[in-house]
Amino acid sequence: METKLTNLVLLAEAEIKKCKTINELLDIKAKYLGKKSEFNVLMQDMKNLPNDQKPLVGKLINEAKSKISALLDLQKEIIDATKINEMLKAQTIDISLPGKSINLGHKHILTKTVEEIEDIFIGLGYEVKEGPEVESDLYNFEMLNLPKDHPAREMQDSFYITEETLLRTHTSPVQVRSLLANADHKPLKIICPGVVYRKDDDDQTHSHQFMQIEVLVVDEKATLADLKGTLLLLAKKLFGENREIRLRPSYFPFTEPSVEVDVSCFKCNGVGCSMCKNTGWIEILGAGMVNNNVLKAAGYDPEVYQGFALGMGIERIAMLKYGIDDIRLLYTNDLRFNSQF
Ligand code: DAH
Fold first, then answer.
1. DSSP state string for 66-88
2. Are residues 182 and 305 in the same domain?
3. Of these four, 62, 67, 140, 186, which has the most CB atoms within 10 Å of its CB?
4. Distance 168 CA to ligand 1 centre (A)
5. Is 100 inside a domain boundary?
6. Is-contact 134 161, C-beta < 8 A?
7. CA pair distance 290, 300, nearest whole angstrom
8. How far is the CA of 313 from the centre of ligand 1 (A)?
């Protein structure tokens, strides 16, 4: 009996080792350990054995079955490992192959221009402030010395949402918000970039949506000379070291006196060309000393505080700097245009 069992185990071992797949292994398992296996026949035959031999034979049969079971487990592990190795081999990455290049975009020219101007002012100790694009009539006009019936409101055709709210027509309301937020009247030096809206028909030089940057300084001693120095520095940083500026008297309700600022033409160096319409000068922005009424409305005593402000259109600056002749190009997202900058 013992030899018979040993041979059975040897036979099973040989067959198990030949198995290459789990299915083959399952067949062998059924053959040796299943209901119709030889072990089962032996077990059934046990009832014919004398009683004293039964325990020993039972033990030998169980031992042989355990050995086959262990062999099956071992072979299963081998099959599984082989399968994983084959999969890994098939999936190896050839690191010598050239990679796929990912096209990273770049910043839009308007964003670049805003950041360039922000950097100039941050370097001078200014803080960047933002305000909402949906603004109240109070901040957009009234507190900037533009009461309801003021004729200068017509300079800015507005998109009203309700009678008291509108899409802001300029970044100047951020002046009001910042003055009000600065309750203890500490010296204020801010720059406020943002999108503004006007009810204009879009054409080569107009867009119903555009961008501005507002600059405001309020303290006890800011003068027109400080404004001039700031403007000259801005002009040089934006358009080149050799630039000069020229101030012309102008009118804005929120500044008094108000000026229009021209920069000497950077194309012809002031001689006269098509860019400067033969004047040698290019208008770049509006500015002035903060109107006393604006200071008062925000709770500042104009006998103690004074300041200057300026506002510029980003599109105009970018168009001048990069020689762009149609504002709509900045808003139509044509990659052939955008990727040039
Ligand atoms: N808010 C004016 C506009 O949109 C621009 C402006 C002019 C802003 C003079 C200022 C300023 O702060 O002092 O036309």
1. HHHHHHHHHHHHHHHHHHHHHHH
2. yes
3. 140
4. 13
5. no
6. yes
7. 11
8. 9
Q: Does 178 share its domain with 72? A: no
185 and 225, same domain (yes or no): yes
Which atom from ligand 1 is nearest to the alpha carbon of 171? Answer: 1
Residue 72 and residue 117 share a domain: no
Cβ distance 2 to 58 under 8 Å? no
Mean pLDDT (whole number) for 169-180: 98
287: which strand partners?
259, 310
Query: Using one digit for the tens of pLDDT, what is the confidence trace for 305-328?
Result: 999 999 999 999 999 999 999 999
Protein residue with its CA nearest to atom 8 in ligand 1: 311
Residue 98 lies in a domain: no
Task: For ligand 1, atom 2, name the residue with the nearest CA.
Answer: 311
Which CATH number is 173's domain given? 3.30.930.10
Residue 193 identity (one-letter amino acid): P
Enter the tokens of residue 215.
């600059």
CA of 190 to the centre of ligand 1 (A): 14
How far apart CA 110 and CA 314 sit, in angstroms, is 7
pLDDT digits (tens, 9 = 90+) for 74-133: 999 999 999 999 999 888 888 888 888 888 889 999 999 999 999 999 999 999 999 999
Q: Within 6 Å (CB) of ligand 1, which residues are found?
A: 170, 172, 214, 252, 255, 286-288, 309-311
Q: Is residue 99 part of a domain?
A: no
Asked, for residue 96, whether it belongs to a domain, the answer is no
Q: Are both 199 and 308 inside the same structural domain?
A: yes
Q: Which domain holds residue 329?
A: 109-338
Query: Which residue among 117, 172, 217 has the greatest number of ligand 1 atoms within 8 angstroms of its CB, and so is best to mutate?
Result: 172
Distance 332 CA to ligand 1 centre (A): 26
- Protein residue with its CA nearest to atom 3 in ligand 1: 170
pLDDT of residue 156 exceeding 80: no
Give per-residue pLDDT as tens, 250-290.
Answer: 999 999 999 999 999 999 998 999 989 999 999 999 999 99
Count the domains in the chain: 2
Give, using CA atoms, the residue closest to atom 6 of ligand 1. 311
Residues 115, 74 share a domain: no
